[in-house]
């Protein structure tokens, strides 16, 4: 948890634009569930600016200020309020060039008197009463921050701390600095008349550059900069334990594993009779809360125990990306991964555990136009999933339902559990780990799209996630290609607002269906095999190096992520008279057979635009699609709307974001953040059990 991460000079710029305090207040409300007090807001406006000003005056404007930072990784799991450090200053030591950290307690006190002559632990502050000596607060934070539960555990770093009373003089707060005051690396006290000493100490602790690199190390330690899921799976060869679950994720996984041990037969002691009660787990959480990480971790641990487990998904693109990118062979992939439609015929014997990811994509029936009549499902698909195993785990986000026949909801799972007489256990994941860990960005997107009751506000850079608006599709493509060629992962995606032509002719030529003025690009290939010029099939468009030449849609992007994502909004969602307007498109004949063009701009999604979907549902599905598209990036989203009025609205909401060093181009990123994406391994021809896990387990890549 943190409220803001900015270099000192950037914090002053943000404050000058009157956007710092509103941002901090919104983050506080999100994390604490209550509004920040007027006193808290005033403290931010006064004390943070004073400290940032001093850093700049000391020539240390690049030192990063982490505001209201949790002392440990598991503060939310502790009883009582989380321990929040006012500011963590992060940079490089000027001589040793290693990570340097200072914990800061900011106080606006101007006068302090001693409560008891015998001790300096407690002091009296006029108008506020008895208060603990700031050094004692810092000692608790210091011990927690540098402990095994701290974010930098296992790293070599210098850490100290100080209290800053910028409204006081040394004489007016004498009890804080007397000879019997607390001592330690965290116990320094600075006042307004000791400012020159503070500036000198800041110079002695921090170099004039390197703050961004140091902050990146801290963010990774906090779990806010994560190894992309597919890269983590490559590093483990898809089978070892690689996900470091945190907070609520860890609690959920441990509960499910403990229950599995009770209700499933023990492979090592088959004579023991297990608990026969039926248990269903339902885990809800928004995009980026780590549902897939928890699911894949459960799968790895249950398989290691000798359980029969399958990992099912309703997303063809996610499954295909997992298979192709991680390097599974066809047979081994089928042995352990499946689709929701794979269980029309119940396994005999049933699986021990079925893990259902993306459960919001459960359909009413398991059907396909390519299946013969006898293969079609005749029962509710959720019943087929429940019959397939003894214990079922559903991961679900109702906010990602994209089509009318996506019926996976909390009510559906609850109703099925009641029919089966099963014990339903519900958990929710709240902490957000996608989009650079920026809860602020996720909330901004949802408010902007009208998915919450919160009014949309101007985007405030928080040092975690970047967003900008392009003036033309050419500019958007230039940005995305530049980052991809520099070394970042990047893709262009768009709302489903143009016809989608199947590959043409024997050469499988892709028609440039996405047409904006003179800028024409093809959709990702509607094909099971490679097309002209090496265009990959749609199922691996997201991870194949040639995918940069095509435009993806929500169905090929859902569940995946890239460093940079360019999002094109079409005219299915435009801004008019202060509200969103939603439109269904119509096609007309194109220049050759099999090709169509836009006659009436709007949605061309064949399942969503039909008149059988009422207007309210249509609007919600379009909102959901753009929410998915706008939350695919881990560092930066570039927006472009084909509609001029909508583009102006987006520009007004995003505002001027060109702050010092905040645009996370590959060139601007610190060395520690330039993590190359792992190459896809050769697809295995051997079974998983034949692999030499001890000698080829890959690096220890931590995800969540």
UniProtKB/TrEMBL annotation:
Region annotated Disordered, chain positions: 672-704
Output the InterPro entries linked to this UniProt entry.
Answer: AAA+_ATPase (IPR003593), P-loop_NTPase (IPR027417), SLFN_3-like_DNA/RNA_helicase (IPR018647)
Q: From what superkingdom does this record's organism come? A: Bacteria
The UniProt regions of compositional bias labelled Basic residues, in chain numbering, are 677-692
Matches recorded under SUPFAM superfamilies: P-loop containing nucleoside triphosphate hydrolases
Q: Which residues form the AAA+ ATPase domain?
A: 277-431
Q: Pfam families attached here?
A: SLFN-g3_helicase
- The name of this protein is AAA family ATPase
Q: Organism, per UniProt?
A: Streptomyces thermolilacinus SPC6
């Amino acid at each position: 948890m943190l409220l803001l991460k900015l270099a000192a000079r950037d914090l002053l710029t943000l404050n000058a634009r009157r956007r710092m305090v509103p941002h901090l207040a919104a983050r506080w409300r999100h994390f604490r569930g209550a509004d920040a007090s007027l006193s808290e807001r005033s403290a931010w406006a006064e004390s943070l600016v004073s400290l940032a000003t001093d850093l700049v005056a000391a020539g240390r404007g690049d030192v990063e200020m982490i505001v209201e930072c949790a002392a440990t990784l598991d503060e939310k799991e502790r009883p009582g309020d989380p321990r929040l450090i006012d500011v963590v200053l992060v940079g490089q030591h000027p001589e040793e060039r290693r990570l340097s950290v200072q914990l800061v307690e900011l106080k606006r006190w101007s006068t302090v008197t001693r409560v008891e002559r015998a001790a300096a632990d407690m002091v009296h502050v006029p108008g506020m009463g008895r208060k603990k000596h700031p050094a004692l607060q810092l000692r608790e934070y210091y011990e927690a921050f540098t402990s095994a539960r701290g974010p930098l555990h296992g790293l070599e770093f210098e850490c100290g701390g100080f209290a800053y009373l910028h409204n006081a003089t040394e004489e007016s707060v004498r009890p804080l600095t007397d000879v019997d005051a607390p001592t330690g690396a965290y116990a320094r006290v600075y006042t307004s008349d000791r400012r020159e000493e503070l500036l000198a100490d800041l110079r002695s602790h921090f170099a004039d550059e390197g703050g961004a690199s140091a902050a990146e190390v801290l963010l990774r330690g906090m779990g806010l900069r994560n190894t992309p899921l597919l890269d983590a799976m490559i590093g483990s060869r898809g089978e070892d334990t690689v996900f470091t679950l945190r907070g609520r994720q860890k609690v959920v996984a441990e509960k499910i594993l403990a229950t599995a041990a009770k209700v499933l037969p023990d492979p090592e002691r088959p004579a023991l009779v297990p608990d026969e009660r039926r248990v269903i787990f339902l885990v809800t959480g928004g995009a980026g809360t780590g549902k897939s990480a928890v699911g894949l971790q459960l799968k790895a641990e249950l398989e290691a125990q000798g359980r029969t487990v399958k990992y099912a998904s309703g997303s063809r693109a996610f499954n295909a990306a997992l298979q192709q990118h991680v390097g599974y062979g066809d047979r081994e992939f089928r042995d352990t991964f499946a689709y929701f439609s794979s269980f029309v015929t119940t396994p005999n014997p049933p699986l021990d555990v079925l893990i259902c990811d993306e459960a919001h994509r459960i359909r009413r029936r398991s059907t396909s136009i390519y299946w013969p009549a006898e293969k079609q499902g005749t029962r509710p698909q959720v019943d087929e999933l429940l019959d397939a195993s003894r214990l079922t785990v559903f991961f679900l986000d109702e906010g990602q339902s994209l089509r009318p026949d996506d019926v996976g909801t909390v009510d559906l799972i609850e109703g099925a559990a009641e029919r089966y007489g099963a014990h339903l256990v519900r958990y929710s994941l709240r902490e957000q780990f996608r989009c650079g860990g920026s809860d602020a960005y996720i909330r901004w997107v949802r408010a902007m799209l009208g998915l919450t009751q919160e009014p949309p506000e101007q985007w405030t850079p928080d040092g975690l996630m970047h967003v900008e608006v392009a003036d033309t599709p050419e500019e958007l493509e230039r940005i995305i290609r530049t980052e991809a060629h520099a070394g970042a992962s990047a893709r262009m995606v768009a709302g489903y607002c143009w016809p989608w032509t199947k590959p043409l002719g024997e050469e499988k030529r892709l028609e440039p269906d996405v047409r904006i003025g003179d800028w024409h690009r093809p959709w990702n290939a509607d094909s099971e095999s490679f097309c002209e010029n090496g265009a990959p099939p749609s199922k691996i468009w997201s991870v194949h190096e040639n995918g940069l030449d095509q435009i993806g849609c929500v169905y090929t992007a859902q569940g995946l992520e890239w460093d940079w994502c360019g999002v094109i909004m079409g005219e299915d969602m435009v801004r008019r008279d202060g509200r969103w307007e939603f439109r269904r498109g119509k096609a007309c004949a194109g220049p050759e057979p099999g090709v169509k063009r836009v006659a009436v701009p709007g949605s061309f999604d064949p399942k969503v635009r039909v008149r059988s979907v009422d207007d309210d549902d249509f609007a919600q599905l379009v909102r959901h699609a753009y929410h998915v598209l706008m939350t695919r990036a881990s560092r930066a989203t570039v927006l472009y709307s084909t509609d001029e009025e909508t583009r102006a609205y987006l520009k007004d909401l995003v505002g001027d974001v060109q702050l010092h060093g905040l645009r996370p181009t590959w060139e601007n990123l610190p060395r520690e953040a330039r993590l190359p994406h792992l190459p896809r391994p050769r697809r295995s021809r051997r079974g998983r059990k034949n692999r030499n896990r001890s000698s080829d387990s890959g690096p220890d890549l931590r995800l969540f």
